[in-house]
Amino acid sequence: MVLIDDYVYEWLSTDPYLSKIDLVNNLRKHSSGCVVFQKTWKRAEGGYKTETYYLHKMIAEKYLFGQKKEGNRLVGSKSGDKLDCRVENLVYRTRAAASRQRKTSSKTGYTGVYQEHNRYRAVISVNGKSVHIGMFDTAEEAAIAYNKLSREMYGEEGKINKVKGW
């Protein structure tokens, strides 16, 4: 279920074009996990046209004006919940910051943590290069080491693993 502010719902429901295409009642969850309106229209002159609107991007463009800067062109969720489209949860990010927020593909379940034999290696990406943080006895210890360096290097835009006690 998507979360939006009351005033955003009001705008989406009363905007002449958005109400004409019935955007509010035709939202769905995209394969990316985001909320999207997508409809294909038959053109009078022949052929088809597909309209696609990502809800989080529409809301950011309307309500976060002035926050979009040269490098910050992607809209993301502060909480990581792509269904939370409340204005307070949306933020413009750089491509690099957005990349750091992606879900990990590591088998350990932690970003930057990889098992090697009976120990765990923690690594972080700096300027596109992998940097060794250290070797640890548990995946959780490695994840905490990753979190500390990520926060130190990237501040609030750094990826933080969910680890008990962190």
Sequence-ordered SSE layout with sheet pairings:
Layout: H1 6-14, H2 16-20, E1 27-29, E2 35-42, E3 48-54, H3 55-63, E4 74-77, E5 90-93, H4 95-101, E6 113-116, E7 119-126, E8 129-136, H5 139-154
Antiparallel strand pairs: 1-2, 2-3, 4-5, 6-7, 7-8
Molecular structure report:
The chain is an alpha+beta fold. It folds into 2 domains: 6-99, Alpha-Beta Complex (Homing Intron 3 (I-Ppo) Encoded Endonuclease, Chain A); 103-157, 2-Layer Sandwich (GCC-box Binding Domain). Helix content is 28%, strand content 28%. The protein has 5 helices and 8 strands; from the N terminus they run ααβββαββαβββα. A 3-stranded antiparallel beta sheet has the order 1-2-3. The chain has a 3-stranded antiparallel beta sheet with strand order 6-7-8, with helices on one face. A two-stranded antiparallel ribbon has the order 4-5. The longest helix is centred in the C-terminal third of the chain and has 16 residues, at 139-154.
Proportion of beta-strand residues: 25-35%
Helix content: 25-40%
Number of domains: 2
User: Mind describing the biggest β-sheet?
Assistant: 3 strands, antiparallel
Strand order of the largest sheet: 1-2-3
Number of helices: 5
What Rg do the Cα atoms give? 20 Å
Low-confidence stretches: none
| Elements, N to C (H/E) | HHEEEHEEHEEEH
Query: How far from one another are the termini?
Result: 29 Å
Q: Which overall shape is indicated by the principal axes computed on the Cα atoms?
A: elongated
Question: What's the CATH first level of the largest domain?
Answer: Alpha Beta
CATH architecture of the largest domain: Alpha-Beta Complex
Number of beta-strand segments: 8
Would you give the CATH topology of the largest domain? Homing Intron 3 (I-Ppo) Encoded Endonuclease, Chain A
**Mean pLDDT score:** 88
Structural class: alpha+beta
